[in-house]
């Protein structure tokens, strides 16, 4: 199935689609209010863009510095070239410590690497502890949003799920009640886990420390209780200095959910006494994107999710309509960077309205990225023959006044017939030609 | 006297001649010498947005050939102007002619605001209108400030509409959400495209608009096609039709 087919399915339930659109628009509105409370907002975006630009330009240097400084503090740093290596490293650490139960806070990277099934097939129980991710995990589903993983589910659906999996009271879908039930269940997982995995929001090269932002404190609880902490990050998570962090934390939570700051912004600078801390730094195709001048900006992303909330397509097709683990505008860009041939539909699943570009806190030119992937898609010969031919024909007609006028006349003459054919989708009437075209009127005026 | 070449995209020529006539009239009234070269058709936008650069190239070359001798090229279509201004450099070899055209191609409202610097209008339009801000005009040509940005909100086109007497511009819940047209997107993904258009119409209707007006006829054409199918009682006009003194019946 391609994006259109999945979108069609999503839209078939009009009421549900409307609810989804409104839920995300509400987040967008909260974001607008929060952003507007910071009068230097646009300057912050510019600063964030510059910092990322500089870091990505000198990534090799900052990675080495980071690894050096982290090691000095007793953190064990590992580099993984791809998902497989990443998973193997994580597994080997867990195995060494005889970990059979691990708690994990939100990390899109581990989704990208499909870490959960990898560990589970080797006998390790993995519990996602972010509430949204836990819901998705219990359902055997995948996140439909990078900040709000379960945004595609209504509270009644979650109530049903908990009835079945957590044996809660029947028919109660009060959000507070459901949250408390999930919390009780998770408490036990936290207490029994011997290992904790977290993502990384920012890695500070100068200090060798990492920063993790959550709203539930689940990363903090997990890492405080378990004897080993493994933090997984992509190579692009670096910032040069601690003083740069404020630029990003001021942007991140406001842009993501409209909060002034995430409830927990935790700095991990060294392992706690008698515990181990590991950082796994993953490439997995990122250095390929880095080499591409036109597309390397995609690596600036701080995963705030705002481009999804604002995207009129995403809101009406849902995160699962995208074939890549990250949905929405940035997901389409990353999917195209990885495999344009098979994700080409995503380059075209956009009106290029540009709202994503305007909202992005690090100023990734998202809609221009999609535009240029369309060009590459065609240049590499991925567009089907029939489609190419129709464009060729149309362009030929438009370049030749004789054929152009003839086709306009034809359209007019056959309009009564054509208008019955739903040529422009069932929900749209075919535009009716005016009595006289402008061309005809103009000639008469001359 | 400055010479203006009128660019009328093919669908406006056929479906919306009054938008073209209004552009012509307003420019003539302002004292410009206006010419409409008959061998024109398309700027190449649909091909560019579909990634088919090779097919857009011939059309762009033709566009330059037709309009190179005018002082200004003016079109009642923001997305075509955005194509010329921001995409032609990627498509064509650098040349003086190209740069001249890029510098002198305007969307009609933009021209009235930036070049003519219109200060007053003697037309009246005693209706409630919803103003649709098409994306390319808003976020590429910067005819206004996108609602995502933390900048003082301003719209060149709203400024012009406010010069019209007796007009009432209604407040929308989503002042600049995309209508879902997107050129070939409307054909590739008709379900979402139509859902988006429907939502826009609903917003305008709930705000009490009798007319949906805008500076990009293609978006209006898409919404009109949906409104027709759903028997919605709402009318569509290009802003320039109002500025040129459209009467009720047009
Ligand atoms: S691309 Fe920009 S807006 Fe989208 S998630 Fe990344 S940082 Fe946020």
CATH architecture of the largest domain in chain A: 3-Layer(aba) Sandwich
Largest sheet of chain B: 4 strands, parallel
Helix content of chain A: 40-55%
Secondary-structure content class of chain B: alpha/beta
- CATH architectural arrangement of the largest domain in chain B: 3-Layer(aba) Sandwich
SSE ordering of chain B: EHHEHHEHHEHEHHEHHEHEH
Largest sheet of chain A: 6 strands, parallel
What distance lies between the first and last C-alpha atoms of chain A, to the nearest angstrom? 54 Å
> How would you describe the shape of chain B?
globular
* Count of distinct structural domains of chain A: 3
CATH class of the largest domain in chain B: Alpha Beta
Shape of chain A: globular
Kindly report the average pLDDT value of chain A: 95
Strands in their spatial order, largest beta sheet of chain A: 1-10-7-4-2-3
Structural class of chain A: alpha/beta
Specify Rg of chain B, calculated over alpha carbons: 17 Å
The count of DSSP E runs of length 2 or more, i.e. the number of strands of chain A, is: 10
For the termini of chain B, the CA-CA separation is: 31 Å
Task: Say which CATH homologous superfamily of the largest domain in chain A is assigned.
Answer: NagB/RpiA/CoA transferase-like
Q: Briefly note the CATH topology name of the largest domain in chain B.
A: Rossmann fold
Proportion of residues in extended strands of chain B: 5-15%
């Amino acid at each position: 199935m391609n994006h259109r087919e999945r979108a069609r399915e999503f839209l078939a339930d009009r009421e549900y689609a409307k609810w989804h659109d409104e839920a995300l628009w509400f987040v967008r509105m909260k974001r607008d209010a929060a952003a507007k409370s910071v009068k230097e907002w646009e300057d912050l975006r510019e600063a964030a863009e510059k910092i990322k630009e500089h870091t990505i330009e000198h990534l090799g240097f900052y990675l080495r510095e980071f690894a050096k400084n982290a090691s000095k503090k007793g953190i064990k740093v590992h580099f993984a070239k791809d998902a497989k290596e990443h998973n193997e490293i994580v597994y080997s650490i867990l195995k060494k410590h005889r970990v059979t139960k691990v708690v994990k806070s939100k990390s899109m990277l581990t989704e990208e690497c499909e870490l959960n099934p990898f560990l589970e097939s080797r006998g390790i129980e993995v519990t996602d502890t972010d509430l949204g991710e836990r819901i998705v995990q219990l359902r055997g589903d995948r996140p439909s949003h990078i900040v709000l993983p379960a945004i595609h589910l209504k509270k009644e659906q979650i109530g049903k799920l908990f009835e079945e999996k957590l044996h809660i009271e029947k028919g109660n879908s009060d959000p507070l009640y459901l949250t408390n039930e999930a919390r009780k269940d998770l408490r036990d997982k936290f207490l029994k886990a011997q290992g904790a995995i977290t993502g990384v929001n920012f890695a500070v090269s100068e200090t060798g420390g990492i920063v993790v932002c959550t709203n539930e404190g689940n990363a903090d609880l997990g890492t405080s209780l378990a004897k080993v902490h493994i933090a997984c990050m992509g190579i692009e998570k670096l910032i040069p200095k601690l003083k740069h962090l404020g630029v990003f934390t001021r942007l991140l939570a406001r842009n993501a959910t409209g909060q002034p700051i995430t409830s927990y912004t935790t700095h991990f600078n060294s392992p706690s006494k008698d515990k181990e801390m590991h950082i796994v730094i993953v490439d997995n195709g990122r250095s390929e994107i880095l080499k591409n001048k036109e597309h390397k900006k995609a690596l600036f992303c701080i995963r705030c999710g705002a481009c999804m909330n604002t995207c009129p397509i995403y809101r009406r097709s849902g995160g699962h309509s995208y074939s890549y683990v990250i949905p929405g505008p940035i997901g389409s860009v990353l999917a195209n960077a990885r495999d344009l041939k098979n994700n080409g539909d995503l380059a075209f699943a956009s009106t290029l309205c540009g709202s994503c570009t305007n909202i992005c806190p690090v100023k990734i030119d998202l809609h221009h990225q999609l535009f240029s992937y369309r060009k590459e898609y065609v240049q590499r010969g991925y567009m089907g023959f029939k489609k190419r031919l129709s464009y060729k024909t149309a362009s030929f007609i438009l370049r030749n006044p004789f054929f152009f006028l003839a086709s306009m006349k034809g359209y007019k003459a056959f309009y009564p017939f054509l208008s019955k054919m739903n040529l422009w989708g069932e929900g749209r009437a075919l535009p009716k030609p005016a009595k006289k075209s402008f061309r005809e009127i103009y000639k008469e005026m001359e | 006297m400055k010479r203006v070449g009128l660019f009328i995209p093919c669908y406006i020529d056929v479906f919306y001649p009054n938008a073209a006539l209004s552009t012509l009239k307003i420019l003539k009234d302002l004292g410009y010498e206006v010419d409409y070269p008959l061998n024109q058709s398309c700027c190449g936008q649909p091909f560019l947005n579909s990634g088919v650069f090779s097919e857009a190239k011939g059309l762009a070359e033709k566009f330059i050939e037709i309009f190179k001798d005018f002082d200004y090229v003016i079109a009642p279509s923001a997305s075509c102007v955005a194509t010329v201004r921001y995409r032609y450099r990627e498509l064509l070899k650098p040349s003086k002619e190209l740069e001249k055209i890029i510098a002198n191609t305007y969307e009609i409202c933009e021209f009235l605001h930036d070049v003519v610097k219109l200060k007053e209008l003697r037309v009246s339009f005693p209706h409630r209108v919803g103003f649709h801000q098409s994306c390319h005009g808003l976020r590429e040509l910067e005819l206004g400030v996108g609602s995502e940005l933390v900048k003082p909100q301003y719209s060149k086109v709203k400024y012009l509409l406010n010069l019209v007497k007796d007009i009432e511009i209604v407040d929308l819940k989503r002042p600049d959400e995309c209508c879902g047209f997107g050129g070939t997107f409307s054909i590739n993904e008709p379900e979402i495209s139509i859902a988006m258009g429907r939502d826009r119409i609903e917003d305008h209707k709930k705000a009490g608009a009798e007319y949906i007006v805008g500076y990009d006829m293609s978006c209006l054409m898409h919404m009109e096609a949906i409104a027709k199918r759903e028997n919605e009682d709402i009318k569509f006009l290009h802003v320039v039709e109002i500025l040129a003194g459209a009467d009720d019946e047009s």
